[in-house]
Every structure is written in structure tokens, then in C-alpha cells.
Design brief:
Elements lengths: L14 E6 L3 H5 L2 H10 L4 E7 L14 E5 L5 H11 L3 E6 L4 H10 E8 L7 H20 L3 E4 L7 H6 L29 H4 L6 E5 L11 H13 L3 E4 L5 H13 L2 H4 L2 E3 L6 H9 L3 E5 L2 H8 L4 E5 L4 H4 L18 E4 L2 E5 L21 H4 L3 H13 L3
Parallel strand pairs: 1-2, 1-4, 2-3, 4-5, 5-6, 7-8, 7-10, 8-9, 10-11, 11-13
Antiparallel strand pairs: 12-13
Helix pairs in contact: 8-9, 8-15
């Protein structure tokens, strides 16, 4: 294994800054990269820069010595204060997101940088070439300030592989990076609040229906069918959700559709759990069922049977990583059902699946026909098979 800094600099870095200025799921998927970097530089000090309130996925991570939080929309004073804290304090910045702001932080913080560059939209040849040319112009300054960059490929390259490839410049043979088991590191768990534990009376399945955006939603009536089936088996159902208004409302709407008998076997934890507590809850579950969202990635990392409902998003890019997988790509682009390790990904029908658009109308509030056509029977079959495989 290589232990040098780069192909042109033999000294290993003493301080490394990882930068992920996006959502909590984007933070979680950097953990295999961090683990690989630790193997490479066992004596280096690792710090992590991300948005305030988005770093709970790193709680208790043994490789991170310090977490630095910033606002997602900082004012000039906060910028100046952050720049003063970062200014050339690091030997290497690893920029895991392609945004201009993330690169600016890397430029301020470190002597050298590696980073992810934004990908190119798909489309007809003319539009694709125009988009490609525009993207190349926008990326020119980012390439100029980096010793190594990795292009995003939203259809063929898994995001975990994308992040790990940021270390290619530090290995004589980059394929070594994928020759051993790769795992996502979940946050260290925290005890569940008594209001939850006092209601647990039987084996349970965690159900997380709320995505960040509407176009990743599965129909309400389908959740009703699934939850009714689960409770009919004698299991409790734990409804999971963030404290966001739309997630609270979604859980309320689902509960309103259930019969009184099914409702008695459902615990609604919406807005009551931290990310580490959610990890604790998931670890104790028979199985987890959720949409394309960060908590689904957490479930996979906790190594419980995970059923992920995917619509427009290519699983080959952002499917939950099956811990222990060796290689660059666990999934194919399109399959009604595919299981790798503890993760089963279900997709609806259609030649357009996955399109990587924001639903059929290409906007955040759109529906997605592929999810509308992903029937509860398919999900129930996958849950039943996943639970049976554990016995």
C-alpha cells in the first residue's frame, strides 16, 4: 500500500480537511473515503467541514478529530471568520462536492486539493455537447487548483466509488482502492427515549416514507397496504421521519388511512429522534423499508435487511451501499428488483427508468409515474423474503 502524499510529493500530509457541504446523506457516503484515507495516512489528523446540523452522521467516527460547521447560506462576517479559521491550516483538502463554494473552502484551507467535478446531463447529442462545453468552462478553474479530480457520472459510477477515487493520485495502482471490502461507517448509536422504548412490545419493522423531495414519494395508499400487511403478521411498525413539516404531515396522513387495529401496532417517531438514535432504532429492527433518502443509506450501513424504493434516481449512482462489498459497482442501472448483501432495491416499470429528472414534470413537487406503478405486492414480497433470509 502507498504511504506517500502524491506522485509528485513524497511527504504524507499531517492535516487533511474533508469538505462535504450538502445534505446528511452526502456526509454519510464520505465515510468509506475517510476509512481508506486512514489506511493510507495512519498518523494524519482528519478534520471535516460541513453544514450546521448535517454532521450527525459522523458522530463517534473514530477517524475524525474535529468537525467544523458552517451555515448553508453564510453572511460576509461568517465567511471571513471561517476563512480565518481555515487559512492554509491543512496540507490537503479533499473536496467531495462539485460546488463552487466547496472548492473555495478548499482553496482557502489547504496547500493542495483533490476534488469532484460536476457531471454532464444526458440528452440528445447537441444539447449534451452544449452542456458538456459549459460544464468544462465552469470546471476549468477547479481543475487548475487541484492535483487530481474525479468526474461525476450520474448513471454508471456509484457515488461511493466516486469519493474513493479521490485518492487515486496517492496509489501507484489505483485499483488497490477497490480490492478489499468497502463499508459505510454509521454514527455511534444513542439510547432511545423512554417514550419510544415503553411502547415496544414485539419484533418491529422500521418504515421511513418521507423523502427530501416530493418526486421521490411512494403513494399514500401503498403505504397503507404495506403497513396493514406488516401488522397483520404480528409485527409492530415504527414510522420514522424528520421533524420537517412535510414529513410530519406525511406520517399523519398515512396513519389516518389505517384501521384502528393496525394503528394500535404502529409507533410514530416523527421528529423525536436524533440521527444516532435513529441508528439505534434501525439496528434493532427485523427490516427497514424506505424511499430514496439519507435514512435508507443509514439503514444499509447498520446492516439490517434494507428495502429501498427507487424512482428517478439511478441506483447505480446512489443506491445504498451493501457493507462489505468488494469492487466499484454493486448495482445495475435498471432492474425491477436487485439484492446485493443486505440491500434490496426496487424500481418501477418503464423504459425511462431511471431518468434522473425531478419526476415526470422535472420539478421538486412532481409525481413520478415509476413510483406510482411500483405496486405494494412487490414491496411486500421483498420484505417477506428479506426477513425470512435472516432465520
Amino acid at each position: 500500500m502507498a504511504i506517500f502524499f502524491s506522485k509528485t510529493s513524497p511527504s504524507p500530509p499531517k492535516k487533511v480537511l474533508f469538505i462535504a457541504t450538502r445534505q446528511i446523506g452526502d456526509v454519510l457516503v464520505t465515510t468509506p473515503l475517510i476509512s481508506k484515507a486512514r489506511e493510507l495516512w495512519p498518523d494524519a489528523q482528519f478534520h471535516f467541514l460541513g453544514y450546521r446540523g448535517k454532521l450527525d452522521m459522523l458522530k463517534g467516527n473514530p477517524d475524525i478529530a474535529k468537525m467544523i460547521e458552517t451555515s448553508d447560506r453564510p453572511g460576509i462576517r461568517e465567511y471571513l471568520s471561517l476563512f480565518a479559521r481555515l487559512f492554509q491550516r491543512y496540507d490537503l483538502a479533499i473536496v467531495t462536492q462539485p460546488s463552487d463554494r466547496a472548492y473555495l473552502y478548499g482553496l482557502v484551507a489547504a496547500h493542495r486539493r483533490v476534488g469532484v467535478l460536476g457531471g454532464h446531463p444526458q440528452g440528445d447529442g447537441t444539447q449534451n455537447q452544449k452542456s458538456r462545453n459549459k460544464s468544462e468552462r465552469q470546471n476549468a478553474w477547479k481543475k487548475a487548483i487541484c492535483i487530481h479530480t474525479v468526474d461525476v457520472d450520474y448513471f454508471s459510477q456509484h457515488v461511493i466509488a466516486e469519493k474513493i477515487r479521490l485518492l487515486e493520485n496517492f496509489y501507484p495502482n489505483p485499483e488497490e482502492l477497490f480490492s478489499k471490502a468497502i463499508s459505510v461507517t454509521p454514527p455511534v448509536g444513542e439510547p432511545l427515549p423512554p417514550i419510544i422504548t415503553n411502547q415496544l412490545r414485539s419484533a418491529y419493522v422500521v418504515v421511513h416514507p418521507g423523502p427530501l423531495t416530493a418526486y421521490k414519494r411512494w403513494p399514500l395508499a401503498y403505504w397503507q397496504t404495506l403497513i396493514t400487511w406488516l401488522t397483520d403478521q404480528g409485527w409492530q411498525v415504527i414510522l420514522s421521519a424528520s421533524s420537517a413539516k412535510q414529513d410530519l404531515q406525511l406520517n399523519h396522513d398515512i396513519l389516518s388511512l389505517l384501521s384502528s387495529t393496525s394503528r394500535e401496532s404502529v409507533i410514530d417517531t416523527a421528529g423525536q429522534l436524533s440521527i444516532p438514535q435513529a441508528g439505534t432504532l434501525i439496528r434493532g429492527a427485523l427490516a427497514y423499508v424506505g424511499v430514496d433518502t439519507s435514512i435508507t443509506h443509514l439503514a444499509a450501513a447498520c446492516q439490517v435487511p434494507t428495502i429501498a424504493l427507487f424512482g428517478p434516481t439511478p441506483p447505480s449512482n446512489f443506491g445504498p451501499w451493501p457493507n462489505g462489498f468488494i469492487g466499484k459497482q454493486p448495482y445495475v442501472l435498471r432492474a425491477r428488483s436487485q439484492t446485493v448483501g443486505n440491500v434490496t432495491i426496487l424500481q418501477g416499470p418503464g423504459e425511462c427508468v431511471p431518468c434522473r429528472k425531478a419526476g415526470c414534470e422535472d420539478r421538486a413537487s412532481s409525481h413520478s409515474e415509476c413510483l406510482d406503478l411500483l405496486e405494494p405486492a412487490q414491496v411486500i414480497k421483498a420484505v417477506q423474503k428479506a426477513i425470512e433470509s435472516c432465520y
